[in-house]
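Late entry, manganese (II) ion complex.
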Amino acid sequence: MSSYLSSEYYSNRIKQARKKMAPDSAMVLFSSGKKERNSGVHYSYRTNSDILYLTGINTPEFAIYIDSKEGTHIFLSESNAEKTRWEGRGVTFENISKNINIDIEKNIHPYEKIWAKLKELLKNKETVYFSLGKDGQIDVKITETINNIKNNLKKGDFAPTRIIHPQEILHEMRIIKTPEEIKLMKKAAEISAKAHENLIKYCRENVNKKELFEFELKSYIEWEFSKNALTSLAYPSIIAAGNNATVLHYTNLTSKVSAQDLVLVDAGCEYEGYASDISRTFPAGGKFTEAQKILYEIVLTAQKKAFEKCYINNTLDGIHDAALNTIVDGLFELGFFKKFLFIKNEKTEMKSSSSKEEIIKKEYYKTYYMHNTSHYLGLDVHDAGSRYINHKPRPLENGMVFTIEPGIYMPHEYDFLPEEFRGIGIRIEDDVIMQNGKHEIITHEAPKEISDLEV
Ligand SMILES: [Mn+2]
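Prediction complete; structure with ligand written out below:
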């Protein structure tokens, strides 16, 4: 049950975290609570990624305590016989003991005992690493526990005076993936890439044969994700035909797909906790219009320029600049900045610019390209870790995994554009691993060259 990686992996993660903790400190992490969807029904459960990172355990009513000196304690609510009849056997003490190499007798306790036990454990700790603000009830219990210690101190003892967000330690660690994690990430990427490839074929084969809707393409790709492996979704799938593709987080999925539409598919599976994130844009019927092809070529070139910038010590900002400059150059040559609608601070204004410098400096490009080119990828699709250290962009290192996803969006409402360009949204997104000083694209199996998308 839910042992994604080896027990050495998890004990090492815990050991590494401990090394980074302040003297006389403790870290306490809680699994996420179950969320009700509607009466008597819960959303499918997924715990938070920090818990998953340290333990691989995906269950509610679970917590881990790590001491800066030594000692790790686990708290778990085990299913009783009656609950088991309804929900099946959940995670057991034995599972956890195996998963993270920990002694059942001394270090694993029933979840119900956590507050009494924390009262003992947090005494004489100066600092507590705890994520305030995630769960109001747990916030209150933690504060109560600390106050309780403070109010019952014996001579020479002390109570915690600082609460620090554990992300300071864990999110830094999560930026660099270990070889074990990279193996899982490659598998997630492979499953998703193959699914995109098959979806493109399916769409092309069916769009002229029958009424094809976005929701059918969604079911198709999600079936592809899960037909050979137990996966879930890394995020809600976006399947957007025609003008819908100009909405960044389009989730309606009710439109009919026409053969001459471009279809933008942004979908990725989560495999054993790890996300993949792929976008492809393709002509539903296998033939680009002239306008679609012109814009598609710019985006594809922008992505290739961005890949060239994936080297050690360059930065995600450097990668973004390469993609952005290519898009601005391309759109500028085509005259798209002669007259355009600029939206800033809820104000819209028609503008004109004849300087690429100005277009970049004043962010006029956001009329057509309004998002960033990259984000980290890992247990979360927008993975943990700051892109900046000391206000400077963080240099790329081996073990980093991130996306490269330039795009161009020309909504149908933009009536200042030539008719043939209105209602086109394009994004091309791949996942990249930095390894041995080089970048490796792990989602390349999903086709994106024009010659592979046309029939
Ligand atoms: Mn993405």
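The mean pLDDT is 95. Will revisit in the morning.
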